[in-house]
Amino acid sequence: xxxxxxxxxxxxxxALSAGEHKTRSRILEAAGRLFSHKGYxxxxxxxxxxxxxxxxxxxxxxxxxxxxxxxxxxxxxDRRVVxxxxxxxxLVEEGDPEEKLGRVISDLLHAFLDGEVxxxxxxxxxxxxxxxxxxxxxxxxxxxxxxxxxxxxxVAEIICLPPDHPAVIRGALSxxxxxxxxxxxxxxxxxxxxxxxxxxxxxxxxxxxxxxxxLGGLKRLQQQWSREEPR
Length: 231
Known about the structure:
Elements: H1 18-38, H2 45-52, H3 58-63, H4 66-81, H5 84-92, H6 97-113, H7 120-130, H8 134-159, H9 166-184, H10 186-192, H11 200-228
Helix pairs in contact: 1-2, 1-4, 1-7, 4-7, 4-8, 5-6, 5-8, 6-8, 6-9, 6-11, 8-9, 9-11
C-alpha cells in the first residue's frame, strides 16, 4: 500500500442508483467482517463477494480493487467508532478547558464502550491500532491527527504551556492512552475485574475518574514546569 491513499472508485464518480448503494453497502459490511477477522492479506476479494452474495467482479467494479476497498472499510470503521465532528465541536468552542476535557473524555469512552463488543468495526479498529496498515495511516493523517492537535490545545491551556511543549504532548498522550487502554482491553477487564462493568452509568463514572485523575497529573506538571521554565 502507498503511504497515503486517496482513491476514487469508478462507480463513485457519478451518482449511484439505489441498487448500487445497496450493493456497495453489502460489500462494505462483508469486507469489514472478513478484514476484522482475518486481516487484509489473508482476505480475498472472492471471499468478500461470496459473503456479500454479489458478482465476483463487484469489488473491482464498485471500489477499483481490494486495496481501495480496504481503505474505504477503514474510513467506515473510523466513522462508526468515533463521532469526530462531535468531538471537534467540543474542542473548538469557547469555555473552561477543564470542563471541555471532561466532556471529550466522556464522549470518547461512550464511543468506545457503548457499542457492541464484538462488532466488526470495533475489532478492526483495535486490530489497526495494534498493527497499523498504510490505510490507517491515511485515517490518522486526515482524521485523527487534526483532532489530537486540537486536544493538545486544551491540555496546553490547563497547564499554561505552548501546545508543542513536550509536557503538553506527553500529557495529552497519557490522557488518550487511558481511554484507548480500556477500549482495547475491554473483554479482559470485564472478565477479570469483576467489580467493573461498562453500562452507561459506570462509563460516566469512569469518565469522571479519568478526568479527575488526569487533571491532578496536569496540575502537577504545571507546578513542575512553572519552576523549571525560564522567566
